[in-house]
Amino acid sequence: MKKIDRRLPDGSYTKSTKKFISEWESIYKPLENIFGWTAVSFGNGVSFETGMHRGPNNSAFLTLTVDECKLIASKCKNEE
Questions:
Q1: Separation of alpha carbons 6 and 47, rounded Å
Q2: What pLDDT score was predicted for residue 80?
Q3: Phi, psi values for residue 56, rounded to 5°
Q4: Is the separation of the CB atoms in 31 and 73 below 8 Å?
Q5: 2 or 67, higher pLDDT
Q6: pLDDT greater than 70 at residue 78
Q7: What residues pair up with 45 in beta bridges, in sequence order?
Q8: HSE on the CB side for 73, CA within 13 Å?
Q9: Domain extents for the chain?
């Protein structure tokens, strides 16, 4: 099975699935924990399902850049 290059949050690439998941978790997990959001995709940034919805079949999604994720998590941590 051929390993593929996966894009890391810093823009570099890895063939390691473990490193790929670990690096992205360090970006999105703090926001999941702070706000109760769920990360649904990541690559050039992170898309979250926010849980705020209007109606039974609609969900609100928010896409943030890596820098925005880090900034929000940092500001929330500093306010604790």
A1: 17
A2: 64
A3: -70, -25
A4: yes
A5: 67
A6: yes
A7: 65
A8: 18
A9: 6-78
CA dihedral 67, 69, 72, 73 (to 10 degrees): -120
Tell which residue, 31, 43, 45, has the closest CA to residue 76: 31
pLDDT digits (tens, 9 = 90+) for 17-44: 999 999 999 999 999 999 989 999 988 8
- Number of Cβ atoms within 10 Å of the Cβ of 73: 19
What pLDDT does 58 receive? 64
CB atoms within 10 A of CB 59: 13
Q: Are 50 and 40 in contact (CB under 8 A)?
A: no
As given in the structure block, the two tokens for residue 36 are 């109760």
Alpha helices of the chain — where are they, by DSSP H?
17-35, 66-78
Task: Write the single-letter amino acid at 41.
Answer: S
pLDDT tens-digit series, residues 42-61: 888 899 988 766 655 667 88
What's the pLDDT score for residue 54?
Answer: 60
